[in-house]
Design a protein that fits this description.
Blueprint: H1 4-14, H2 17-32, H3 39-64
Helix pairs in contact: 1-3
Length: 65
């Protein structure tokens, strides 16, 4: 279980809540509605927001460690 302190640190400084929300929504669409995913949109998101993916990964790894 993730400690409350790690959760708050994560939300306060590592990555904005807005980016986390967008990443979670993107993930849910790709995983649960993959038959409706527009490849051009996914490629656009990856091309324009790759830093968000890196920040998301780093924040999750920090919580898990």
């Amino acid at each position: 279980m993730i400690s409350q302190e790690k959760r708050w640190t994560f939300l306060r400084g590592d990555i904005s809540f807005e980016i986390m929300l967008k990443m979670a929504r993107f993930r849910n669409i790709v995983v649960h509605q993959y038959d409706k995913v527009d490849e051009a949109i996914v490629i656009g998101i990856l091309n324009n927001n790759l830093d968000d993916f890196t920040a998301y990964r780093d924040a999750i790894l920090k919580i898990l460690n």
